[in-house]
Design a protein that fits this description.
With 323 residues, this protein is of the alpha/beta class. Helices cover 36% and strands 20% of the residues. The radius of gyration is 21 Å and the shape is globular. The two termini are 30 Å apart.
Length: 323
């Protein structure tokens, strides 16, 4: 058996047995509280710079041997918003540079930002960086005004549940499937056998339901677009910034200073101070400073938090390649 085939089978086995694996967690031990750094302005009301970058997930990405890594998007956003509420901010500058991520994680982040905005009655302006696709666009719908850079890629309003059928390969190398189930659809989507027509219809209905939820969020966030127009736009394709503006998916093409000016207008303040919350060793010097990237060895499944099994994704994932 070739190493390539062995690797594929090993990956399949890992996906099936991963739920029983033992994991040593050292990432969060001794995690320090968030610090505040002024990244823009000298006077005026305080505004929070809130980052949504890389894959949107709900579990920590751990580095080699469990040391280092990146925090879950959901917990990081909630912690930042809690601190912002305690220290009182007049608005939020939501900076998004993400291809999306897990369905539930994207929805949780969206809901947390929306809850914060409504509870504190403050404006939120989104500035899209290189990418705000799928779950990244979903999160942007919590804001009052959306600005895309002229080179932003956005849209991808859709759902994906990726999978493989390895049964032909297994048959070729004499590997059998001995999975035991109780319930007709218990192993629907298993990579160890072909999918039946009823199973495909069952899983398609789940994906369609999640897609409908995505469209509802877009209708709520873009009230000038009716449900039918959103349905037409939400076919999974990505849009350039210009196309997104033409179709009403964003409000303006511009840059960071334009987002700052929009916040000033909405807060009705001639000047504002933008602050960023970060860990002690995270570098924050200006409006473009970002949180540390995930470990180089972290794969897509791990970054999504689905390395122990399959999942449904609000993710732009062209060709099945990891972003």
């Amino acid at each position: 058996m070739s190493r390539f085939v062995a690797s594929i089978l090993a990956l399949a086995a890992t996906a099936l047995l991963g739920a029983g694996c033992i994991t040593v967690h050292t990432f969060g031990d001794g995690r320090r509280s968030l610090e505040e750094t002024l990244v823009y302005g000298k006077t005026g009301p305080r505004v929070l710079l809130l980052d949504i970058d890389d894959i949107i997930n709900d579990s920590d990405v751990r580095g080699p041997l469990g040391v280092g890594g990146k925090e879950a998007t959901t917990s990081r956003v909630r912690e930042q918003l809690d601190k912002a509420e305690k220290t009182q901010v007049a608005g939020v500058l939501l900076r998004i540079n993400s291809p999306g991520g897990a369905v539930t994680a994207s929805d949780v982040v969206y809901r947390e930002i929306l809850r914060f905005k409504q509870k504190n009655d403050i404006p939120i302006v989104t500035i899209m960086m290189g990418m705000a696709a799928s779950g990244g666009y979903y999160v942007a719908m919590a804001s009052d005004y959306v600005i895309a850079h002229p080179t932003t890629v956005t849209g991808s309003i859709g759902v994906i549940a990726a999978g493989l059928n390895l049964s032909g390969l297994m048959q070729r190398y004499g590997v059998g499937n001995q999975t035991i189930t109780a319930g007709e659809f218990k192993d629907a989507g298993s990579p160890l056998r072909p999918m039946t027509a009823p199973e495909r219809a069952y899983l398609q209905a789940i994906v369609d339901d999640m897609h409908a939820r995505f469209r509802e969020v877009v209708v709520e966030g873009r009230p000038e677009l009716d449900a039918e127009r959103v349905r037409v736009l939400a076919d999974g394709r990505i849009y350039t910034a210009g196309q997104a503006l033409e179709n009403g998916l964003v409000d303006e093409l511009g840059y960071m200073p334009d987002a700052i000016d929009e916040l000033k207008r909405r807060i009705q303040a001639p000047e504002i101070r933008v602050v960023a919350f970060h860990r002690e060793r995270e570098w924050r010097a200006n409006l473009y400073s970002s949180t540390a990237p995930p470990p180089a060895k972290a794969g897509l499944a791990e970054r999504l938090g689905i390395d122990r099994g399959p999942g449904f994704l609000y993710l732009w994932w062209p060709g099945g390649l990891a972003p």
